[in-house]
């Protein structure tokens, strides 16, 4: 009576990276292993982990936003210490993982850093403010007294420049539309 097509919890289309990692458990018992194998899935916003690849039950998940990822060789003392990385976020739980290889660990770190950078650039539009800075400087640097009798002349010069610019803009193959 098993379902023919098991539907995974997450949308496969948005998965950036997935694979087995060993996750360090927070409350490991004296008998239990400190590192538990987990099927981990990273999509555009969230990091999920499952008991195994076939499991539909999410063991845990967290929003990747605000987290930073870095290699962490100090987490283990054994031969796999170069496979370790951690996810950190101020004021939130940190997560520690062991990848199957040092290259895989680096790839997880790269993917997460890239993703977090992408997410933060969407939420903080800082480009617009930077563009306006130079204009303010130009306005404030000219003293008002000396500029006042030149305003009409400057205005005419500006208009001439603008007309020339328009002529240049029209030339490259767009005359037919405007005329």
From TrEMBL:
Biased composition (Polar residues): 138-157
InterPro entries per record: PH-like_dom_sf, PH_domain, SKAP_fam
Lineage: superkingdom: Eukaryota
Keyword line: Cell membrane, Cytoplasm, Membrane, Nucleus, Phosphoprotein
Domain PH: 14-117
Organism: Podargus strigoides (Tawny frogmouth)
Pfam annotation, one family: PH
Protein name: SKAP1 protein
Protein location: Cell membrane; Cytoplasm; Nucleus
Protein encoded by which gene: Skap1
